[in-house]
């Protein structure tokens, strides 16, 4: 269970699952020679000796200004999942409650509404899906929510068991892509993976960090921003967003925490000619 301190803010990673994948299973437009070029800094944390990339599915708990925020809620237990996954039975919830009780969470923030970011929004109790965090406000991006509830179909979206119960309970709040939470935490628009996708920015006591969401799934996409992710809704916009992100945070003292980056998960973007490396913290 990794954690980081940014000024007065504490961020804790709660792992649900970590898996190796063939690179082409997730990343589009891969060039094998370029991938091998980056292997020296990708191994051992983000690529194994077999050439598989390592992907983590985890939530991040932010403690700031007396408030507790859970960023993205992974896949969840007890339900069928897209792409033939699940049902899962993991220790995620008990692991999270070692950091904060369900009842003490103030906000749940979803960077977007794909199934692996909203799963633990709810839990199965006596055959019904109920809010996992009963005292929290669930923050959904307005643009994101309105897009996926407009009749658009996507295999990565399954809102009936993960979002609808929250809305029915009156616990949701639609927010804009520049919404601020406690004074140290704010959203940052990073569209392309989905139309209303956001990242999460932390700024406290002169120290800064940013949680990527699925703006990028794997560190190699920072070095090769044109390598998209297969689930990207708007691939060209997603590529531009990754380029802008590297320009904004490259060679800056900003800790980048990858929502799907395998352990150690956090590091810094170091520019390297016309590309970059991700240097772990």
Describe the structure.
The longest helix is centred in the C-terminal third of the chain and has 15 residues, at 235-249. The chain has six helices and 15 strands. Helices cover 17% and strands 31% of the residues. The chain has 281 residues and is α/β, with parallel strands linked by helices. It is globular. It starts with a strand and ends with a strand. The strands form three sheets. It has a seven-stranded mixed sheet. A six-stranded mixed sheet has the order 10-11-12-13-14-15. Strands 6-7 form a two-stranded antiparallel ribbon.
Summarize the structure.
The chain is 17% helix and 31% strand. It has 281 residues and is α/β, with parallel strands linked by helices.
The average pLDDT value, as a whole number, equals 97
CATH homologous superfamily?
A: Ribonuclease Z/Hydroxyacylglutathione hydrolase-like
Instruction: Domain count, please report it.
Output: 1
**Which architecture would the CATH scheme give at its second level?**
4-Layer Sandwich
Report the strand count: 15
| Helix content percent band | 10-25%
Largest sheet: 7 strands, mixed
Secondary-structure map with pairings?
Elements: E1 3-6, E2 9-21, H1 32-42, E3 53-64, E4 67-71, H2 92-96, E5 107-109, E6 122-125, E7 128-131, E8 137-141, H3 142-148, H4 164-168, E9 172-175, E10 185-189, E11 198-204, E12 207-211, H5 220-223, H6 235-249, E13 254-257, E14 266-272, E15 275-280
Parallel strand pairs: 4-5, 5-8, 8-9, 12-13
Antiparallel strand pairs: 1-2, 2-3, 3-4, 6-7, 10-11, 11-12, 13-14, 14-15
């Amino acid at each position: 269970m990794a954690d980081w301190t940014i000024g007065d803010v504490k961020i804790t990673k709660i792992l649900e699952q970590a898996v190796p994948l063939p690179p082409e299973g997730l990343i589009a437009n891969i060039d094998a020679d370029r991938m091998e070029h980056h292997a020296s800094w990708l191994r051992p944390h983000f690529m194994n000796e077999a050439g598989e990339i390592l992907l983590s599915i985890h939530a991040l708990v932010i403690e700031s200004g007396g408030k507790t925020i859970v960023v993205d809620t992974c896949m969840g237990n007890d339900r069928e999942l897209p792409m033939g996954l699940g049902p899962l039975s993991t220790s995620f919830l008990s692991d999270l409650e070692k950091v904060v009780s369900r009842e003490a969470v103030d906000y749940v923030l979803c960077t977007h509404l794909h199934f692996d970011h909203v799963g633990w929004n709810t839990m199965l109790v006596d055959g019904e899906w109920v809010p996992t965090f009963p005292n929290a406000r669930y923050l959904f991006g307005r643009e994101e929510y309105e897009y996926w509830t407009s009749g658009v179909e996507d295999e990565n979206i399954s809102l009936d068991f993960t979002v609808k119960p929250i809305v029915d309970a009156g616990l949701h709040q639609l927010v804009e892509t520049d919404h601020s939470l406690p004074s140290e935490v704010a959203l940052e628009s990073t569209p392309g993976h989905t139309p209303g996708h956001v990242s999460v920015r932390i700024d406290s006591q002169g120290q800064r960090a940013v949680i990527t969401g699925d703006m990028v799934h794997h560190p190699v996409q920072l070095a090769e921003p044109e390598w998209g992710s297969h689930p990207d809704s708007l691939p060209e916009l997603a590529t531009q967003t990754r380029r802008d992100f590297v320009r904004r945070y490259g060679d800056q003292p900003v800790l980048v925490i990858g929502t799907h980056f395998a352990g150690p998960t956090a590091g810094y973007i170091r520019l390297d000619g016309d590309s970059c490396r991700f240097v772990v913290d």
